[in-house]
Design brief:
The chain has about 290 residues and is mostly helical. It has ten helices and no strands. Helix content is about 80%, strand content about 0%.
Length: about 290
């Protein structure tokens, strides 16, 4: 077992099974002498309901997801080329594909015993729209390891910070290209060859983007470390709360025993006082009898 295999299994489960199975896998890794792997497995976060539904779509309807991502590439190519007719046609296809996937998402949730409300399905649609708009977001969705929903603001890149499980272990995923996309890609390659090498400004821009991504990755790792500390503190808090609850029950039992002991003590004292009075009466009768016999 490795981190990839563990993550793929966990993010294919319904959320209710996630935590227990994560503990089992971490224990198995630790028992096999893989302490570092056990630690990494323990860091894997339980997905939101929206992320779980999208992950389920990837597993049960991969062809539809690939169609969605391929359509996203075609849309971006049409936007770059300012191809208005193609954009209108692809936008219509986009609405149909997303609507179909949202319908499948509702069915997936129902099949697993979960009712996906309107709010949940809107977040599923927003995640699919983000995958269409941004190729990196598309790869994140296609990984089947989403932790949370995605959203696209309409410009720039989709924020993928803390959105995907085990990103360092996840292989780079390619998107299935449709024939139309392959033709567009071929034209783009020919155009690049004609234009020649990129300008120095473009090179600087790419370097800046690379650095920004490096910083983003670093911050994501720091966030994972902080989250692990939070999980550890939460677990400790839960253990202490359980201990307090146990002690409360034990204290209540002791209080009950004390009340019973008080009741028994009062009863014994009453018997003692009654016996003492009876003994006094007997002694008085004895003294009276002795006086009469003198």
């Amino acid at each position: 077992m490795d981190l990839d295999a563990a993550a793929d299994e966990l993010y294919g489960l319904v959320p209710d099974r996630f935590t227990a199975r994560r503990t089992e896998l971490a224990t198995e890794a630790r028992s096999a002498g893989e302490a570092d792997l056990a630690k990494e497995i323990g860091k894997l976060r339980r997905p939101t309901v929206v992320a779980w539904i999208v992950n389920a779509l990837v597993r049960t309807h991969p062809g539809e997801i690939d169609r969605l991502l391929g359509l996203g590439d075609e849309l971006r190519a049409a936007q770059r080329d300012l191809a208005g007719d193609a954009m209108r046609e692809l936008s219509a296809q986009r609405r149909t594909v997303v609507a179909d996937l949202v319908g499948l998402a509702r069915s997936e949730a129902a099949g697993a015993g979960h009712r996906a409300g309107d709010g949940t399905l809107r977040e599923v649609q927003a995640t699919l729209d983000a995958a269409l708009a941004d190729r990196n977001a598309g790869a994140a969705v296609r990984s089947g390891r989403l932790i949370t929903a995605l959203s696209y603001s309409g410009f720039g890149e989709v924020d993928l910070s803390d959105a995907v499980a085990a990103p360092s272990a996840r292989p780079r995923l390619s998107v299935v290209r449709s024939p139309a996309k392959e033709a567009t890609a071929g034209k783009a390659t020919a155009g690049k060859a004609t234009a020649g090498k990129a300008t120095a400004a473009k090179a600087a821009e790419r370097a800046e983007l690379t650095e920004a991504r490096r910083v983003a990755d670093k911050r994501a790792r720091e966030a994972e470390t902080a989250r692990a500390a939070l999980d550890k503190a939460t677990k400790r808090r839960d253990e202490l709360a359980a201990n307090v609850a146990h002690l409360d029950k034990q204290l209540e039992r002791e209080r009950h025993s004390l009340r019973n002991a008080d009741t028994e003590l009062r009863a014994a004292k009453q018997k003692h006082d009654a016996a003492h009075r009876a003994a006094d009466r007997t002694a008085q009768r004895l003294r009276a009898a002795e006086k009469q016999n003198r």
